[in-house]
Amino acid sequence: MTGRGCAVLIGAVSLGVSLSMSSAQANCADRGVRATALIIDPPTIDGDLSDWPDLVRHSVGGSAPASFRVAYSPETDRVYLAIEVEDDDLVVGGRWNVTDAADIYTWGGDPTQGCHSNRQSNPIQWAVVPGAGEYNPGCGNPCAYHLSSGPVAAVGKGADAAWRRTGNMIIYEASVPVYDEFRWDPVALKPGGTIGFDLLIVDHDHDHAYKWEAWGNPEGSKFQSPSRVVPLTLSPERATSPLWDALGTVASWAGQFALYCIGLVALVAAGTGLRRTVAGWMGGSRMGTLEQRVTDTQDVIIAMSEKYDRLEERFVELAAQIRQSNESDKPK
How far apart are CA 177 and CA 116, in angstroms? Predict the structure, then answer.
């Protein structure tokens, strides 16, 4: 082969490799689905979602329709999930194919920059079962699964999860770290960064076979390659705490109530002062007439005071309604 022929062949091979790499990177980055996680104050992981802010809800279809909210904290370097699944038939088993569950996947790389896949640098599956069962025998609940290590106790890797059954709703709440290399420490979650993420809802009915539905990438076994997760952007924006939202409403009512109270005190003080002043100026029948008028004014003030008492009761009821609204922040 001539030198020119060699050069053409090498160029063709290089072009083919380049196109192949570009295609692989595009397939990894461009799934048409991605999410953004806002910064939140870490919630208590107890299955009660009343301390979650009103974030964007992402939908997952399938036999057990679900919605989830995702956020993160750069202070704890964890991703937080609030998952609500509609499932009339709760099944809790001792293995992945005979139980309901939620599978959360995280990867410390950036899928938008192309994916490097090896046994140590692959997504981790964090599986949560809604009850006393297990996803993998002997792994605990939640359970972590990594391609190079198999089932691993998730608690030992920093994960935390809780679940709750309310009517026909299964609620999962989870806090999970993010690894690039499973042998190393979790990665730092920095605002503006991007990580790999996905969620899979597992549904097993008593009368039907095992089923699952993924939110982002339709492929299963996501721990086999970073190309099977999708991008999660870590926003620098901080979500508003539901407590502050409630306090804002309460503060508005409290401000109005305070103004009414100040006005009431001023009226009472003015009536008392007027009565004393007039008493020093006048006597006789005219004094009696003025005293009666002052008395009538005070009666009106007392009536107003009773109305303000009812306003205060309404204020207390409103605060209770706000608390109940936060506690019932879930689809019916």
Answer: 20
Instruction: Quick: pLDDT tens for 133-159.
Output: 999 999 999 999 999 889 988 888 889
Question: What tokens does 94 get?
Answer: 């001792």
Alpha helix stretches (DSSP H) within the chain: 3-29, 242-281, 284-327
Whose tokens are 């461009």? That residue is 30
Q: Which two tokens stand for residue 201?
A: 């809802």
- Exposed, middle or buried by CB within 10 Å (0-12, 13-18, 19+), for 125? buried
Q: Helix 242-281 to helix 284-327 angle, to the nearest 10 degrees?
A: 180
Nearest to 125 by CA among 114, 116, 136, 109: 136
Tell me which residue of 238, 194, 200, 308 sits closest to 40, measured CA to CA. Answer: 238
- For residues 112 and 232, what is the distance between their CA atoms, to the nearest angstrom? 10
Q: Which helix (H) or strand (E) holds 314?
A: helix 284-327
Query: Which tens digit of pLDDT belongs to each residue from 221-271?
Result: 999 999 999 999 999 999 987 654 544 444 445 555 555 556 555 655 565
**Tokens 């091979």 -> residue:** 13
